[in-house]
């Protein structure tokens, strides 16, 4: 995910929140937040309450509390550059406002069913993956939009369809998962595993049943360190390990870390996966009666 753009969105959200407005994160950046995949967002699409008629409404009346939003954007250094598109710029970021109240008719998506989030004291809404699929399918019928974005919506639809088919979920483990995990994770005792779960240091990936998990701690109490990445035998070589690492990296970015680490035995294949994902070897050591252990690190700024 483009962390710089997302941080800017959080700043704008906090400013809007101070006036009682909770924005909806849309577009490629919103999809990046949900899927944790880089969709190369070019701008920041924000939807707010407004006229359900959308484009049929007059430009100056389409957005509810438009004068307040204009004031907020000016206060944080933005200038309105296109009233019809409700587009702002500060010379670095482009922000476009839309109307969330069009979603029920446009994409069969109810406002009350949007996911509510709060990060770094910024409150906002974001569609679920299933809702994004409806939204992009609706927008795919718009020939003007397809020409404008070089049919990129179809790539997103294809991906979202595949996610829906597999119904794979990545989430933090909860205490109810402890018994199941302790029967499979033989490298940590149940008491320490339970502590790791309570501290949100265990991610699991599942599809009706457990597929695998990622457990981490903190090197020098300051750098997130992957202690265990394990995919159960029937699910290997299907990129589930990559999905877990990507999810872990994304979450560490949100927590404000700029580096992650791990280690792996020199005889294990996982070193090649880590290198492929941008990790670099920075040294190693020989544990007692064990093969050489490679230490890897990755900058995630």
CATH topology heading of the largest domain: Aminopeptidase
Tally of discrete structural domains:
2
CATH superfamily of the largest domain: Gcn5-related N-acetyltransferase (GNAT)
- Derived from helix and strand composition plus strand pairing, the structural class reads alpha+beta
Shape: elongated
Low-confidence stretches: none
Distance between termini? 11 Å
List the total number of helices.
11
Number of distinct beta strands: 14
| Estimated helix fraction | 25-40%
Strands ordered across the widest β-sheet: 8-9-10-11-12-14-13
Question: Which architecture name of the largest domain does CATH use?
Answer: 3-Layer(aba) Sandwich
C-alpha Rg (nearest Å): 22 Å
Proportion of residues in extended strands: 25-35%
Helix and strand string, N-terminal first? HEHEHEEEHEEHHHEHHEEEHEHEE
CATH class of the largest domain: Alpha Beta
> Which sheet architecture does the biggest sheet show?
7 strands, mixed
């Amino acid at each position: 995910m483009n962390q710089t753009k997302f941080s800017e969105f959080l700043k704008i959200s906090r400013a809007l929140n101070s006036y009682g407005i909770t924005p909806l994160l849309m577009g490629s950046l919103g999809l990046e937040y949900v899927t944790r995949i880089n969709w190369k967002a070019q701008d920041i699409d924000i939807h707010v309450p407004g006229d359900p008629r959308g484009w049929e409404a007059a430009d100056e009346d389409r957005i509810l509390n438009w004068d307040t939003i204009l004031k907020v954007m000016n206060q944080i250094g933005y200038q309105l550059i296109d009233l019809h598109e409700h587009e702002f710029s500060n010379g670095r970021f482009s922000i476009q406002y839309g109307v969330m109240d069009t979603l029920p008719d446009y994409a069969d998506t109810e406002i009350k069913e949007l996911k509510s989030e709060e990060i770094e004291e910024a409150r906002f809404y974001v569609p679920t993956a299933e809702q994004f699929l409806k939204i992009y399918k609706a927008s795919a019928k718009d020939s003007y939009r397809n020409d404008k974005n070089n049919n990129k919506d179809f790539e997103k639809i294809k991906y979202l369809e595949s996610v829906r088919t597999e119904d794979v979920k990545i989430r933090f483990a909860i205490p109810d998962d402890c018994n199941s995990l302790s029967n499979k994770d033989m490298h940590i005792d149940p008491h320490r595993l339970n502590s790791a779960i309570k501290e949100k240091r265990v991610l699991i990936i599942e599809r009706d049943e457990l597929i695998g998990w990622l457990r981490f701690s903190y090197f020098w109490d300051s750098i997130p360190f992957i202690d265990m990445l394990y995919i159960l035998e029937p699910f290997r070589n299907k990129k589930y390990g990559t999905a877990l690492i990507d999810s872990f990296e994304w979450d560490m970015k949100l927590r404000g870390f700029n580096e992650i680490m791990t280690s792996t035995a020199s005889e294990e294949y996982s070193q090649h996966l880590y290198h492929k994902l941008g990790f670099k070897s920075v040294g190693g050591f020989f544990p007692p009666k064990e093969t050489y252990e490679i230490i890897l690190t990755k900058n995630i700024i």
